[in-house]
Design a protein that fits this description.
The chain is of the alpha+beta class. It is built from four helices and seven strands, in the order H-E-E-E-E-E-E-E-H-H-H. It has a seven-stranded antiparallel beta sheet, with helices on one face.
Amino acid sequence: MKINEKLISYFESSSSPVDKQGYLSKKGEIKTSYQRRWFVLKGNLLFYKDRPADRDVVGVIVLEGCTVQLCESEEHFAFSLVWSEPGLRTYKFAAEDQTSQESWIKALLSASHSYLAVLVTDMEKKYRENGDLTKFLITISSNFIQDKKVTDRLSHNHMDDQSAVHH
């Protein structure tokens, strides 16, 4: 899927909350050695670049539908992102230590929309039990509107890119 690079860079650097950030080593697809990269996790998007201060994003991984697995590797504290759909790349990473590895795995496991949907359902149940459903709906609506604006812009730009390819 082709995604508008300017919009991705904007979203990565925007004030939207960062779920986790830090260095990981990522195994290249062509150059199969591990390269140290700075990663930023926002929602179910994992951005990476060479250094934290760099403006340009080297890449982005959409985490929806992936599983996180520990893996055997020449690198210590290695793990991978794997998709069940055929033809999708498996990404391999190595953390600096076990604490960092465990922290990244936990954050990545919590990054999918399906996981967040379960959290929203649980939160709604708690608000209902406390009789404060209005506050819940306002909170969810404002977060949804903000996220939808970004998603719509990504989708719109993706459709523009696709139509340009087909014409």
